[in-house]
């Protein structure tokens, strides 16, 4: 009895003092952080930059992806420079990216905003083999794009030190980039911060694939959920006279819709599935794999796309790897097995580096929805004192919570492992 | 001039046949085949969510592209300058002014739909905002708790069974359909502001357009998916359908 009481008190002490509002990991993932609890920042604008990498011929219907785009938020004086890497499939200027860039800018950084390997622009115009999925290979491609990006903006910024950070897949990529740079020494990253990283691409993808597959029967249910949300948005905007969907709108919408945990899982799974659908299509088209698209058919600029959507029919990330990714990698290495690919897409490939590096830090949550229990255990084991695990926050839900941001900024600027 | 507008509108509406709509979704008509698997997978059914009636798709896609170019060269530079040079207070005033002009139209549609609440809010908001709110520049009505209720001619026609007709991408304006385009044109023709010359009317409409564009975050070809055209179409048609079914609840 005494022991149980002790454990209870310890748990309470551990959670005590961390007031992030959403204790449910799925709700946290969707609702993120209410405005009043967020770190403060100004609405700074960014400049869109373009690089023409000419990796291969761009299909006419994807003409708008011809050049690789990234963003720059430049201080007008000498300032530390930070590369910020987006999560899976996210554009460089998504809502999360913009908020994080503004927070970093507010804290004195010049920011280069980059997507990661599953972004459609990256797959089409920056990747050499157009089939993301092997962490090491993808990160090397990102590393070379970073060099070009820096070259492109060199006249617009003054800096002495370079940092790198990212969230979700961007966080994982940042850690691998740290390892690459420890050998190549092109940037000499001063500090590396990974926010809510995945440990193994496949474990996380499987969790996210199943969030949708195990919680929904058919498209009709997805359709009904979509209709429910649209109606909610309409009622919200009629009531408030605004069409702006910000944190406050999302919050009140969810309060009104009163969603079940299962519906929340479906939403998170669906958001990820739409990225998987895009990757299935784009990678198939670019690699001429012929799974959903006919490699011999001439594509027109104003190509109708609904047939492809139908053909892909909610294929998930695992489908992509098995049908398109694996086939493409095998052309380069005949003896490659699925097991090897899975192993290659884990932080285990850079374990020695992570164990020995004093300038690397990881922030994650105890209830992170994209990590298995083993993933989290592994991360704690190799990072030791250089990991901060918050009791809750889901996947990136507490990323902009003031306390989290203070911690991240403090580490980046002072190298503090509190 | 006004007569010509109304004539065109009638032609528009005449093109779409009138009949009372039965609310049967295509999904109810076709049962989705689900595999006899213990775990049901989304992929076991057919995906037909993107199969929508869009006979003018090749043309629509080209207009979509035109709108992107127009945005780049005309709309966005103007609306960026508009945001940059005019302070928020003035922009809000302009927006309130235009929004106030639609109150009587909402009220008229409220009469046609026998929706007394909308008639009341439309008339009272218009009177309060035009007088105390200085010609509609200040939204006093919302402050004293008379929230806006918007009803359009398109809503009225929909309830009375006019079919929406084919999906359209309108030049400069974006997603629409035949019925909605006709309704917008009529509303424009009946607008209470008439300077006497069509040119001036169009300039006023242009300012309204800039105001609307500056408050809309949407950018063509930047949704982050190769299925952008289909997604926009789906969201437009779904939201119109939902609005039609729930017009009294919204």
Fold and architecture overview:
The complex is a heterodimer of chains A (418) and B (250). With 418 residues, chain A is of the alpha/beta class. Helix content of chain A is 50%, strand content 10%. Chain A has 2 domains: 19-202 and 346-414, Alpha/Beta hydrolase fold, catalytic domain (Rossmann fold, 3-Layer(aba) Sandwich), CATH 3.40.50; 206-341, no CATH class. In chain A, strand 3 (81-85), helix 3 and strand 4 (110-114) form a beta-alpha-beta unit. In chain A, helix 2 packs across helix 10, helix 7 (201-213) packs across helix 10 (261-287) and helix 10 packs parallel to helix 12. Chain A is globular, with a radius of gyration of 21 Å. The two termini of chain A are 33 Å apart. Chain B is mostly helical and 250 residues long. Chain B is built from 11 helices and 2 strands; from the N terminus they run ααααααααββααα. Chain B has helices spanning 2-15, 26-29, 57-85, 88-101, 103-112, 116-131, 140-143, 153-159, 178-190, 198-214, 228-245, and strands spanning 167-170, 174-177. The longest helix of chain B has 29 residues, at 57-85. The two termini of chain B are 35 Å apart. Chains A and B meet through helix 8, helix 10 and helix 11 of A and helix 3 and helix 11 of B.
